[in-house]
Amino acid sequence: METKKAEETEGNENSPAQRVNPVPTYFFKRVPQEVAPDLLGLVLRHQLNGLWLESRIIETEAYLLEERGSHASLGETPSRRALFMEAGTIYMYYARGGDSFNFSCHGPGNAVLVKAGIPHPPDLRDSEMLQVMHQRNPINGRQREPGKLCSGQTLFCKALGLRVPDWNQKRLIPGTLELSDPEDPPQQILQTTRLGIPKGRDEHLPLRFLDAGYAGSCTENPLRSRKNNEIKIIPPPKKVFSKPLNL
User: Fold this and answer.
1) Least confident among 39-43, 132-136, 196-200, 226-230
2) In a domain, 159, yes or no
3) Which of 19, 41, 67, 138 is the most buried (most CB within 10 A)?
């Protein structure tokens, strides 16, 4: 019976047995400019009502205490306390009425915003997970394209069922909310300026990072934008999770 149960679990594409390479907590004990590109290609997975909802991270933005585009630059408040907590703490807030998901990083007030993702794995067109994501993220009464289900910080949270009251000031919990490395890193990473930063609040800083292979599924494709923002191609990160980083 135990062998049969193990075989059934291994065959379930949405089971915990499919988890690979959980990301260690020390991953976040670095400055956000390093963490943000390294998050690209990792998979955030949330078990909701017995079902794993998973998204590969394809777009991030770094925020620092000392620059004026960050929430932390406005000072510590009860709602922003997570930004000043231990690296790896989840900071969630409302943006245009929707939930947004961040990880705190090394240094008080520093964080990375998860800006967009794609359902993972991307070939599960008829999976229960994808059906649930469609139900959670309709557009004008119809289904979004699968590649657009998590295209934006609030769509990302809605697709995965991540809510401010549930996760703000919390940490990743094995078996419930996990971050893993599928060992399929981006081939190229684009670096450019962040979106939605008001003029005069360090909008020029190149702190937005995108997986070039999924640029069309990001919040806004910089390769097709008419804005005169400089785009830089940087090498993909070399993730080494087998030993602690030198901090």
Assistant:
1) 226-230
2) yes
3) 41
Asked, for residue 74, whether it belongs to a domain, the answer is yes
Query: What's the CATH code of the domain at 223?
Result: 3.10.300.10
The helix (run of H) or strand (run of E) holding residue 159 is helix 153-160
31 in a structural domain: yes
pLDDT tens for each residue of 57-89: 999 999 999 999 999 999 999 999 999 999 999
Q: State the total domains in the chain.
A: 1
Q: Where are the beta strands (DSSP E) in the chain?
A: 43-48, 51-63, 90-95, 98-104, 111-119, 177-180, 189-192, 208-211, 232-234
CA atoms within 13 A on the CB side of 25: 9
* Tens-digit pLDDT profile for residues 114-154: 999 999 987 777 699 999 999 999 998 889 999 999 999 99
Q: Which domain holds residue 40?
A: 20-234
**Is omega for the bond preceding 121 within 30 degrees of 0, making it cis?**
yes
At 17 the pLDDT is 39
DSSP 127: -
CA 216/CA 142 separation, integer angstroms: 20
